[in-house]
Fold:
Amino acid sequence: MRLLVLGGTAFLGRAVVRNALATGWEVTCLARGSAPVPDGARLVTADRDTDDALAPLAGEDWDAVVDVARQPGHVRRAVRDVRTRHWVFVSTANVYARFDRPEQGESAPLLDPLDADEMADMSEYGPAKVACEQAVRSSEATSTIVRCGLIGGPGDASGRSGYYVWRAAHPTGPDLLAPPDLDFPCALIDVDDLAAWIVHAAGERVDGAFNATGPTTTLGELIETGRRVVGAGAPTPRPVPAEVLEREGVAQWMGPTSLPLWISDPDWRWFATLDTSAARSNGLSTRPLEETLRRTLDYEETRTEPRGTGLTDEEEVALRAALDGTVGG
Structure:
């Protein structure tokens, strides 16, 4: 079986390549070449911003193609230029039009697709992914559309999935500062579980759109699970009032100087949750959250790239001082 991965050098793409190789696929990756591909895969270097990026693959046929692109032009040209029996397109929950209801299914309303070939900025990410989905569906081949939730585990350079377990292992004080709403709904899928299902869907030519994430839990339970991973000495979470976070310039969900995985806007309360029953009936299996967080902590302890989400030690110390001052006042 011949698999083409458009990408394959970053987080999820690398996991897909590793799993496919272990399953016995012959794997080719087309990527810029800014990072190596896993041992055993063939690398074809190309810049997908150019119209003829896929020319080096001319004349080749594939049993399946996995594409993780976000730019509609990349996907439109791939559908035009690549011959395959099956597409797997890695989309996102951001394609949905609203998030004020729990665990919405694949038939929920989507955003309007982006007409342009390139996003102007990340505010167009959801519409761009809708356009990519439509391009894949226009192919004569069968297709699996994978609408992912939050992906965690080893290699999550964003730091979203690993922040709280890492902070529990490296406290700056007697408590772990957390968002004010520990009941905020959360869901997290391990990158290797998602990769395994993508390879399965490619091999079985699973046709349709599927949500893919972990079981719904709460932010408080995610933090508590991380504390169990760390064991004795892990600090107790201390919710920080929203007005203190706003006053001190602490962001929501992700990014620098943030407390991740929560959103105060009620219209986005269920952003992380998805109904995954269709994917699970077609082979998706997810490991316990505790195992994913244990793997993620191992990665966090050895990562070399900067952590892109959360509070630095100095920022958490300053926020605790501000909180103590507020309480004292």
Summary: The longest strand covers residues 86-92. The radius of gyration is 21 Å. The chain has a mean pLDDT of 96. DSSP finds ten helices and 17 strands in the chain.
